[in-house]
Amino acid sequence: MTKSASESGTYVESGEFKRDTNYITTRITADGRDGYPVEAGRYRLVAARACPWANRTLIVRRLLGLENALSLGLCGPTHDRSSWTFDLDPGGVDPVLGIAKLRDAYLARFPDYPRGITVPAIVDIATGQVVTNDYAQITLDFSTEWTALHRPGAPLLYPEPLREEIDEVSLAIFRDVNNGVYRCGFAGAQDAYDKAYDRLFSRLDQLGERLEGQRYLVGDTITEADVRLFTTLVRFDPVYHGHFKCNRSKLSEMPVLWAYARDLYQTPGFGDTIDFGQIKTHYYVVHTDINPTRIVPKGPDLSGWLTPHGRESLGGRPFGDGTPPPPPVPSEQVPTPVLP
To answer: Three-state DSSP class for 122?
Structure first.
């Protein structure tokens, strides 16, 4: 979800980092009330494995079994000054949309689009126009509006009786953790950084206390809240601890959160969407005002992600009355899930 329409490498702000949260709020719904009905094969999800906000859509799409209904285009881990780009595809062109830059899909619908070109985005294949980039709503709609296309055994990630609690927990996670690491990394003043740092680790401590006696954040199954926390935790030691100066503790030094994150990583649909190489390349290469040399560090050792976590002792049913998703389709497999 990087501000890729701005000058490449300019991310640190003069004081406190403030995220632009104005997105394209068009929704794809079962009744098509915004003009875009849920329809198998009509849309293409454009994401990047490097981006935590896009990573959410990859996980939820996998868990719900939407692969056959919603095709996937993957941008590379870096982008140019104007747009995320399809560097991973032959000729640098998305084979379905026929474009080299995601920006083309935005401009096809909004010729004077004034904001950053962000992932994730869902594109209407026939028109080549972006439908939405509202990442927070996309995954909720996958759970509530795309139900007719869910796989048999799809879990309930946003169960109605728990939605108020999921929303409350998710808001705190967004404010202090998901966005909190960026408020540390992009702070342009010491006091802004200090404030963000304290809020981040205070919230992580609270989440650790919450998870000490329960396997998942809300209820006894995986929900949307777990997806939202996981995508930040999995990037914490490779990127945020050093690159964003979130260095009070590594994730691997916070026992409860480390075990919780490993539990999710080893759950089908989570770790099999993670490409640590792309994650590190994105942050260390793109943020040149933080890392002007663009040197990507070799560490840390990531093999610990596959070690036993012991969270089964807390009970819980990862998929509730549902079942695990099948393995990723071959074209979407991560080449190296864990680096040595």
So the answer is: strand
Query: pLDDT tens-digit profile of 37-74?
Result: 999 999 999 999 999 999 999 999 999 999 999 999 99
Residue 51 is a catalytic residue: yes
Order across the sheet with 43-47: list the strands: 71-74, 43-47, 121-124, 129-132
CA distance 240 to 237: 6
Residues 69-122 have pLDDT tens digits of: 999 999 999 998 899 999 999 999 999 999 999 999 999 999 999 999 999 999
Q: Which two tokens stand for residue 84?
A: 């995320």
**Token couple for 249:** 């503790």
Sorted by where each starts, the structural domains of the chain and their CATH numbers stand as 160-332 (1.20.1050.10)
Among residues 36, 182, 193, 283, the one annotated as catalytic is 182
Report d(CA 133, CA 103) in Å as an integer: 12
Gyration radius from the chain CA atoms: 19
The angle that helices 163-173 and 190-212 make with each other, rounded to 10 degrees, is 140
Tell me which of 23, 51, 193, 283 is the catalytic residue: 51
The C-alpha angle with vertex 131 and arms to 130 and 132, in degrees rounded to 5, equals 100
User: pTM of this prediction?
Assistant: 0.95
